[in-house]
């Protein structure tokens, strides 16, 4: 037996259902000269991002 289950090498699909790992997406904003300015998590809605951008852009 080679450990394959669910048609995926090593049973990835089966483990995915049991050992779910949360993944995140973060949007970063950098100043035109390069320094970090702000970031928003993937859970931020459009209004939160717009408010943050307005406060940074003055």
Strand order of the largest sheet: 1-2
Q: Please work out how many helical segments DSSP would assign.
A: 2
Summarize the helix and strand pattern as letters.
Answer: HEEH
Mean pLDDT equals: 78
Molecular structure report:
By secondary structure, this protein is α+β, with helices and mostly antiparallel strands. It has a domain at 21-57. It has 2 helices and 2 strands, in the order H-E-E-H. It has helices at residues 12-18, 46-57; strands at residues 26-30, 36-41. The longest helix is centred in the C-terminal third of the chain and has 12 residues, at 46-57.
How would you concisely characterize the structure shown here?
By secondary structure, this protein is α+β, with helices and mostly antiparallel strands. It has helices spanning 12-18, 46-57; strands at residues 26-30, 36-41.
Task: Name a few traits of the molecule.
58 residues; alpha+beta; two-stranded antiparallel sheet
Question: Which helices and strands, and how do they pair?
Answer:
Blueprint lengths: L11 H7 L7 E5 L5 E6 L4 H12 L1
């Amino acid at each position: 037996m080679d450990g394959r289950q669910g048609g995926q090498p090593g049973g990835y699909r089966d483990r995915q259902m049991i050992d779910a790992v949360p993944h995140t997406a973060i949007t970063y904003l950098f100043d035109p000269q390069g320094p970090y300015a702000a970031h928003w998590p993937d859970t931020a809605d459009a209004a939160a991002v717009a408010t943050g951008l307005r406060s940074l852009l003055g």
